Automatic annotation (TrEMBL):
GO terms for molecular function: magnesium ion binding; oxidoreductase activity, acting on the aldehyde or oxo group of donors. Residues 1-25 are annotated as: Disordered. Residues 541-624 form the Pyruvate:ferredoxin oxidoreductase core domain. It comes from Streptomyces avermitilis. This is Oxidoreductase.
């Protein structure tokens, strides 16, 4: 029996339904090519945990997947309110996919607020599983429902499944010595069990996870497992769910290898550890917790066995100061933050430029300005990374394009920092940081050799024949200065933020020397060796869509849709934003139209227009959410036809 599957274009919001089978005595089973599920409830309902567990089981099953967690900034937002809704969207398929999906085919709404906040995103015919226990008059009035949406016909366009999740959970746990409030907390596991039955997800991993998570509270572990099994059994026995669904593993989407599900922050953390091992240097993280970067600090603190040292500082300035000191001492030094923290770190980044020491500045971008939208995504720190320091202080900028790509981007940022003795910005964002996808675990033999040679002795001979150490005598190929570890005999030298004399590193106020040093530091950044940008242009298009960072998935999905519809369009995506690839100018001039979608008001477009005098067109969004593929496809089509 074969299933009907779609191509890999992510064309439609509706999954393609394959053949239907019904074993004797069992419910109908339908095969789909892909599904988009969204779990939604109060921020205390465990929606992120529920989505994460469903994702883990889906990854172990072998589907391709992409996720979009979305939650309030408050630790516990007001219960039952629209601002307090937390959601987790998962798109999984039997083929290669690129985004978390535009519109969910299934919504699990734990209360009226979750329904109201998300129902407008649903396509007609979508399945809606509603926790009817929470649809009290008071709860509905809190979010503006004058009448019950379960009874007034407003949901007639959807396939609604009213389920008393809370009551069923409490009933399933009555044998446990739990209060009603304690039992109700397991309703997310009941929902997870029900969805696991609906989509034939494995269960062993979740039960093992719950046993481990609550190892010190075995009664709580047993209760959650019981709720999970009760949800599965409810799906199996109730008449309301007459059909379950299968989504086959995405065997053709992945090259051979060992895979795991990984989030962007976790991949970035592993990339930093791998870079330190490949450089044979200890990894030092000086950081202050800030959303959405804190998970990197949490993860790296677990890996002292790999020579990782983590320092949670009292503020952003102390964090980067400690990291720069570690770089001076010979470590692969990192500081992690988001946009507001970059503002505080800017003076020390300028000091790192002056000292010419390797330092990774990881900026997990979020909505701004100021505190802005701590848990929402944006890519509006590009100009801050480029120019957000006093004086001429050029810094390389690298940006990953998917959650898994954060691993490679971290290694690339480390390569540049170590080779050229410079701070490097690594620009991720909340969408990549919290989102996840399958990641092929690389062979260590395939990772680059990042080992460096520290200065060991004199490197310059004076006119009188005396051999001395000049801390600013440069490598002619990279213009990098020597890296001299404190305590090495004979390599004593002056450090600080005042301008250095070329070669000797002594304090210098000479105008000609300052001009030379400024231009040399710029030339060092301009001369960084980065790969040429690759262009995907199968049929000689006249229009090019250029992106950077996390827009890769939506742009690629939109381009696939347009090509399937017969349109001709080229695509290119930047990893290196400073310096740009050397062939970028020639690529841009080869197209009549260049469109640059960004989650800002046109920052890359500004740089492109200024440097290459290309009439690049911006398409911008700053609503805290990633682009939708259909939205981009429409915008690109209009740009092509204009």
């Amino acid at each position: 029996m074969t299933s009907q599957v779609s191509s890999t274009t992510e064309q439609a919001d509706e999954p393609v339904v394959g053949e239907q089978r019904k074993p004797a005595g069992a419910k109908d089973v339908r095969r789909l090519d892909r599904v988009i599920i969204r779990f939604a409830g109060d921020s205390g309902d465990g929606m992120q945990l529920t989505g994460d567990r469903f994702t883990s089981e889906t990854a172990s099953f072998g589907n391709d997947l992409s996720t979009l967690p979305n939650f309030p900034a408050e630790i516990r937002a007001p219960a039952g309110t629209l601002p307090g809704v937390s959601s987790f969207q998962l798109h999984f398929a039997d083929h290669d996919i690129l985004t978390p999906g535009d519109a969910p085919n299934v919504l699990v709404a734990m209360n009226p607020a979750a329904l109201k906040a998300n129902v407008s995103d649903l396509p007609r015919g979508a399945e809606v599983i509603v926790n009817t226990d929470e649809f009290t008059k008071r709860a509905m009035q809190k979010v503006g429902y004058g009448t019950s949406p379960l009874e007034d016909g407003s949901l007639d366009g959807y396939s609604v499944h009213p389920v008393p999740l809370t009551t069923l959970t409490v009933e399933a746990l009555k044998e446990f010595e739990l209060s009603r409030k304690e039992a109700e907390r397991s309703k997310n596991m009941f929902a997870l069990g029900l969805l696991s039955w609906m989509y034939h997800r494995p269960t062993e991993g979740t039960e093992k996870f719950l046993t481990t998570k609550f190892a010190k509270k075995p009664a709580i572990a047993a209760a959650n497992i019981a709720a999970f099994r009760a949800g599965w059994n409810f799906g199996e026995t109730t008449e309301d769910f007459a059909v379950s669904y299968e989504v086959a593993p995405a065997q053709s989407a992945f090259p051979a290898g060992t895979y795991r599900n990984i989030s962007g922050n976790l991949a970035l953390s592993y990339g930093l550890i791998a870079a330190s091992r490949q450089a044979d240097l200890p990894l030092y993280l000086g950081s202050y917790p800030i959303t959405p970067a804190s998970d990197i600090l949490h993860e790296l603190s677990k890996h002292k066995n790999f020579g990782v040292r983590t320092f949670q500082a009292e503020d952003e300035i102390a964090g980067i100061g400690a990291a720069l000191g570690a770089a001076f001492g010979g470590s692969l030094a990192v500081t992690t933050t988001s946009g507001p923290g970059v503002a505080l770190k800017s003076e020390t980044i300028g000091l790192a430029v002056s000292l010419e020491l390797p330092l990774l500045v990881v900026d997990i971008q979020r909505g701004g300005p100021s505190t802005g939208l701590p848990t929402k995504t944006e890519q509006a720190d590009l100009l801050q990374a480029m120019y957000g320091r006093n004086g001429e202080a050029p810094v390389p900028v690298v940006a990953p394009r998917t959650p898994a790509d954060c691993f490679e981007a971290a290694i690339e940022a480390a390569r540049i920092a170590l080779t050229y003795r410079t701070p490097v910005f690594l620009l991720s964002d909340g969408y990549l940081a919290n989102g996840s996808e399958p990641w092929r675990i690389p062979e260590t033999d395939g990772l680059p050799d990042l080992r460096v040679r520290f200065a060991q002795g004199p490197n310059h001979t004076l006119d009188d024949g005396t051999e001395v150490f000049w801390p600013y005598k440069r490598d002619p190929g990279t213009l990098a200065r020597p890296w001299a570890i404190p305590g090495t005999p004979g390599l004593e030298h002056r450090i600080g933020g005042i301008e250095k004399q070329d070669g000797t590193g002594n304090i210098s106020y000479d105008p000609a020397n300052h001009d030379f040093m400024v231009r040399t530091r710029q030339a060092k950044i301009d001369g960084i060796d980065v790969p040429d940008i690759e262009v995907d242009d199968p049929d000689g298009a006249s229009a090019l869509v250029l992106g950077w960072g996390s827009t890769y998935g939506p742009i690629t999905a939109a381009v696939r849709r347009l090509r399937t519809a017969g349109e001709s369009i080229a695509q290119a995506h930047l990893r290196h934003l400073n310096p740009f690839p050397s062939n970028l100018g020639a690529v841009l001039k080869g197209y009549d139209k260049v469109v640059i979608p960004e989650m800002n008001l046109g920052q890359l477009a500004t740089l492109i227009r200024a440097k290459y005098l290309v009439d690049a067109h911006s398409y911008n969004q700053v609503n805290g959410m990633p682009f939708k593929a259909e939205q981009l496809a429409t915008a690109l089509k209009e740009a092509i036809d204009d």
